[in-house]
Amino acid sequence: MSNSSCSIVRDLLPLYDDKALSPKTAEVVKNHLDKCPECRDYLAHIHHVVRAMQNQNARNNYRYSEVVRRIRRNFFVELAVGAAVFSFACAALIKLASRE
Ligand SMILES: [Zn+2]
Fold first, then answer.
1. Helices and strands (DSSP H and E) totals, the chain
2. DSSP type of residue 94
3. Ligand 1 mean position to 44 CA, how many Å?
4. Which of 13, 48, 72, 75 is the most buried (most CB within 10 A)?
């Protein structure tokens, strides 16, 4: 394969992988891939990188959900403590008011 056609095909591979190419261009890329093991390897490499990025995104989403879960848990703990303090204050006021 000529270096220039490999270079052009490799530029197009991300779009080919996303099925974002026109049918005619996709066919040209597919015909090149059928004949060029280096570009097939390059496509496999793109798949590998994309999968790694998706896994990283999944981990980041997991971390984000963990942060949200902790924030919510802390909020409910603070809400419960606040409600307990408020109840105690009300009970103390009612007791004071009933003395008079
Ligand atoms: Zn090639």
1. 3, 0
2. H
3. 13
4. 13
